[in-house]
Amino acid sequence: MTIALILASLVLLVLFGVLTWHALNDFSYLGGAGVRHSYSWGARCYDGKWRSPSYQNAAQTRQLLAPLLEQAGGDPAAVVVDLACGTGRFTRLMLAEEEFRGKIIAVDFAPGMLRELRRVLQEMPPAAQSRVEIQEQDVRQWRPAAESLQAVALLEAAEIIHPLGPTLEAIFVGLQPGGLLLTTVVGNGFGWLFPGRRQARAEFSDWLAEIGFVEIQRHPWRRRYDWLLARKPLPPARSHPP
Ligand SMILES: C[S@@+](CC[C@H](N)C(=O)[O-])C[C@H]1O[C@@H](n2cnc3c(N)ncnc32)[C@H](O)[C@@H]1O
């Protein structure tokens, strides 16, 4: 009887551990459908998390956006992509910046998240709304025109997109020379939650370097995430014969 009880407790413990692990990685090891549905269902609550103090740090937000604002300049023709945009935190932050005059393409595959984004955009001035194009799409199939983008943001999503390699390659192709990728990587101590996804410690930076990105900087950010900035290199300057 006692052995049966111990065994049953062990089985329950293992089941609980497995379930918790799946929940912590957004069910992303169960395939894209799990991620899409869980985010669609939780979209309303998701948006609420930004009101928590860890997201309300204006200086940090400024630090995060500054390189992109510099890259896109005041150019109304600049195109910036918010990949796996969710309810559009990055899109909305960029739209709020006077220095940014360009267009944003917001891409996500969870209809519920995009519904929330559309709802909040409707509260914005029509001029701001008209600068956002929403695309409901799986980013693993997203392929931008070569050298058409000033910057791409992929925030709090790189670890749950699998495989991520083709998307990183597509970002590299789509960026103009000198263009920027702003992304996140799970902080030290969380990488073990994502086996096989190159999220532990410096692995993600190494991956970006292998693809061709340069000037890769990793900044501590929130408890679960660090943010990363990486640049597509400019073509080498032509040397002129003396
Ligand atoms: C943690 S949320 C991050 C949302 C937003 N980038 C932010 O910073 O708040 C992750 C988002 O990635 C999206 N996502 C995950 N895998 C995706 C995929 N393969 N294609 C498109 N969107 C995806 C989810 O639908 C969800 O909206």
Automatic annotation (TrEMBL):
CDD domains in the cross-refs: AdoMet_MTases
Segments forming domain Methyltransferase: 80-179
A single GO molecular function term of this UniProt record: methyltransferase activity
UniProt keyword list: Methyltransferase, Transferase, Ubiquinone
Superkingdom assignment: Bacteria
GO biological process, one term: methylation
Gene3D superfamilies: Vaccinia Virus protein VP39
Name by which UniProt lists this protein: Ubiquinone/menaquinone biosynthesis methyltransferase
